[in-house]
Amino acid sequence: MKLYYSPGACSIATRISLHDAGIPAEYEQVDLKAKVTERGDDYLAINPAGAVPMLVLDDGQAVTENVAILTLIAERAPKLGIDGPLGQIRLIEMLSYLSTELHAAFKPYFHATSEDEKEKAAEAVGVRLNLLASKFGDPYLLGSHFTVVDAYFFAMLRWAREFGIDLPTPFPAYFDRLSDRSAVRQSLLEEGLASPLIAA
Ligand SMILES: N[C@@H](CCC(=O)N[C@@H](CS)C(=O)NCC(=O)O)C(=O)O
Q: Which of 5, 6, 10, 55 to mutate for ligand 1's pocket (most ligand atoms within 8 Å of CB)?
């Protein structure tokens, strides 16, 4: 497998999940502004959407979209998914919420042209974090064990910290717990990111 990623981007959720699952992979960095990979390849020729993550499977098939990639990893490493009749549905339900609601609410932070837009984004992120706090499974987002959902949420909690957005209870302690996980530490190190525990 090969993951196209950018340091600190949402693609870190895939890296964390692959490490947690013990699935070996190659990693190639993408310059998202220039749309060029670290090998000098035109990323738009590889992925016309120009976004990370993109996961290329061992048979050469490429999978894009966080929801699809993380579902695939949970399918291959069931410990990162949810059991039971509605298990996969619950996983996709939360991945979709994170993608279409929370991740989307952060976009102005990356593209905003005015402080007003950023303030509105902070409010939108806050509303969604509060909703997630009210549904928190304890000790992980969906309940008793770490899933790909936590890996995706970690990427966004990290952004919230970076952008100075307050995390509602129980997320500060949950974030510290996730940060201490070996797959998370390894992923941060590999992407050249400072420990969030030190940065916090
Ligand atoms: N719909 C995609 C969006 C992924 C996405 O927004 N990736 C960001 C990094 S977190 C990106 O690559 N942005 C650069 C761009 O879209 O040009 C998904 O959910 O996987």
A: 10
- CATH number for the segment(s) 83-193: 1.20.1050.10
Q: What is the pLDDT of residue 196?
A: 55
What residue ranges of the chain are covered by domains with CATH 3.40.30.10? Answer: 2-78
- φ/ψ of residue 55, rounded to 5: -115, 125
Residues with CB under 6 A from ligand 1: 9-10, 32, 50-52, 65-66, 99
The token pair that represents 59 in the structure block: 């048979």
Residue nearest to atom 15 of ligand 1 (CA): 51
Q: What are the CA-CA distances from residue 25 to residues 14, 91, 133 (Å)? A: 11, 23, 33
Pick one of 3.30.70.3400, 3.60.40.10, 3.40.30.10, 3.30.70.3280 as the CATH number of 2-78. Answer: 3.40.30.10
Distance 179 CA to ligand 1 centre (A): 23
Let me know how long the chain is: 200
pLDDT digits (tens, 9 = 90+) for 163-192: 999 999 999 999 999 999 999 999 999 999
